[in-house]
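Example complex used in Figure S2.
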Amino acid sequence: EVQLVESGGGLIQPGGSLRLSCAASGFTVSSNYMSWVRQAPGKGLEWVSVIYSGGSTYYADSVKGRFTIFRDNSKNTLYLQMNSLRAEDTAVYYCARGTEPGIRDYWGQGTLVTVSS
Amino acid sequence: QPVLTQSSSASASLGSSVKLTCTLSSGHSNYIIAWHQQQPGKAPRYLMKLEGSGSYNKGSGVPDRFSGSSSGADRYLTISNLQSEDEADYYCETWDSNTHGVFGGGTKLTVL
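Predicted assembly (229 residues):
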């Protein structure tokens, strides 16, 4: 059974850093397209970042240069390192698996990140 | 980059059918999309992949009541025999080599 479990969210001050984790089971992270998608309170879904099976990484313009997506194959876990956080980064962050680009066929339950002083 | 346009809301009666629309921007009418369902307070759930030809592949466990179709730049999600648990937000999504991920604004479906 495919499962994705996010962790690492919380309350952080503007300018701070946070690392989100997404522990996967039932499949191999490194063999799939793994993404982070976020949802601000009361808003729609926003794609944040993706890492391809080959290791290429891509980011939304809103987070480029501040966020880094990476994976630990030995732990079968996906990460999102978030630096220089802003109030507008406040959202529930979901990790999602894709068997091809843009087809996110399994989602985690999400972790809430709140950026506030 | 592609843009996806969805109506903000839709409603239909219990037991009836509803057809939700996702429209691709000019120049992107042949793009493949995905439909996702998000019930209140829950994570999104993948429903299906839908091609411009109208061919679709559903995710694991998605009921037969859910189907997809296409016409030009429009991608449709049809839900038959509406149930109370179908009341949710529905998002379409696409991507390309430059964008990697684009979501529509979502349609809030109310089951009357």
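DSSP finds no helices and eleven strands in chain A. Chain A has a mean pLDDT of 96.
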